[in-house]
Amino acid sequence: MYKTILFVFLILLVNSCASQPSYTLVDGELETSVTETLKYYLYYPPEYELKPEKKFPVLLFLHGGGEVAEDLGPNERIPPPNLILQGRKFPFLILAPENSYAKSWWNTRAVKQLLDSVVSKNRIDRNRIYLSGISRGGGAAWEMAVQYPETFAAMAVVCGMTPLPYASWINKKMPIWVFHGEDDDVIPVEESESMVNKLKEFGYDVRFTKYENVGHEAWSKAYATDELYAWFLRQQLQN
């Protein structure tokens, strides 16, 4: 009797499984189109018009979440743009796009398209394209260094978010300078410390500046450092 019941159960189970539809796997393809409108500032050094035969470096600067608000006054903008508005002169072009979304990440592909457009329409030395960003823009700078390793000659990141796995994907010949405030309560200094240690472990040319008694606004000190701009100018693309 037991064997008969077991036999019937197995038959029902097999029939039940057989009645289930098999899975379907479809290979598909969709061409997508994403449009992004980027406002930007583009600074030209005084020599640009005076020396029409010369090619100039360009610095791409990515701001943080605090500059998303519209109609910021000169004193509310973050350097280097606000330093330009205050009259400081730089020896290279500065491209500063605006991310208009308060809680959205930078669209780095759109930023790269903007950079390519500016480079193609101006007298830019393609071996001297520099990258810098702060906070959320610092995180985007790390991302762009990974995505476009053959573009940037040097990078400076200030109090940025630092995805540690990126350390192994960046152009190892690109010098990097990291800045962070020790009392940063928005993005802890340990993020930069971990990234710098990992970069050094992999043999990168990396500098690290920590500011004592400084919170998240480490950019005020970092971009007031004359040596930063001299350091940029000494770098050329190495692939």
UniProtKB/TrEMBL annotation:
This protein's UniProt keywords: Signal
Signal peptide (residue range): 1-19
Protein origin, superkingdom: Bacteria
Q: Which Pfam families does the UniProt entry name for this protein? A: Abhydrolase_2
Which InterPro entries does its entry note? AB_hydrolase_fold, Plant_Biomass_Hydrol_Est, PLipase/COase/thioEstase
Domain Phospholipase/carboxylesterase/thioesterase per the UniProt entry, residue ranges = 107-221
Q: Which GO terms describe its molecular function?
A: hydrolase activity
What protein name is recorded for this chain? Answer: PHB depolymerase family esterase
Q: Which organism is it from?
A: Maribacter flavus
